[in-house]
Amino acid sequence: MYHRQLVDLEDSAITMRFTREQAFLLGLGGIAAGAAYDLWSDLGGGAGQGHLVEEALVLGAALGLFAWMAWEIRRRGEAVAGLRRELAEAAAVARTAGAADQALRRQLGEFIAAQFAAWQLSPSEREIGWLLLKGLSLKEIAGLRETAEKTVRQQASAIYRKAGVNGRPAFAAWFIEDYL
User: Fold this and answer.
1) Cα 56 to Cα 50: distance, rounded to the nearest angstrom
2) What is the CATH classification number for the domain harbouring 123?
3) Residue 146: helix, strand or coil by DSSP?
4) Could you give the CA distance from residue 4 to residue 38 in angstroms, rounded to a whole number?
5) Which pLDDT tens digit goes with each residue over 143-173?
6) Cα gap 147→21, rounded to integer Å
7) Choosing a second label site near 179 at 20 to 30 A (CA), which of 80, 112, 115, 131?
8) Which of 41, 76, 96 is the last residue in one of the domains?
9) Which residues contact 14 (CB under 8 A, 6 or more apart)?
């Protein structure tokens, strides 16, 4: 159940990020096209050399930003794809676990969800709490949720405060310390 929620969260985060970044790329492409057209028309119109250099610099900057943003989108996409593969592998392992293991995992998930409710975690804090327990880094969580790493760090601190623990190891140990 939770894995499906995580995949849905992941899909919505990816969709939002690429839509915004693609819009930015489209804008940069428009600026580059406009600068290229202006430079071309100025070449035929007898514009001064200083103006042509300025136009060429604008075009170069727009193309450079366009290339950097395209590379960044690809890099992030590959990172998210890696996280998806890891989550799919974890789900496959969970599916192959025996019935007793699956029942215990389900019970643990229900226990964690109930504890999150008892701590009165917000929906965002619950999502981050699950991802922390799954072992994702703050940077990975920020990438999946398309938020700043600082925001995730602040929300994680709020989770620890509400749980009455002083960090991530104590947060994870809270759920298993009486069973070891």
Assistant:
1) 10
2) 1.10.10.10
3) coil
4) 50
5) 888 889 999 999 999 999 999 999 999 999 9
6) 14
7) 131
8) 96
9) 77, 80
- Say if residue 103 is in the same domain as residue 49: no
- Cβ within 8 Å of residue 113, ≥6 positions away: 126
Number of domains, the chain: 2
- Work out the angle at residue 24's Cα, subtended by the Cα atoms of residues 19 and 25, and round it to the nearest 5 degrees: 95
Q: Range of 147's domain?
A: 99-180
Cα(28)–Cα(70) distance, integer angstroms: 11
Q: Is the same domain home to 131 and 53?
A: no
| Cβ-based neighbours of 111, under 8 Å, separated by 6 or more | 175
In tens, the pLDDT along 97-107 reads 676 777 888 88
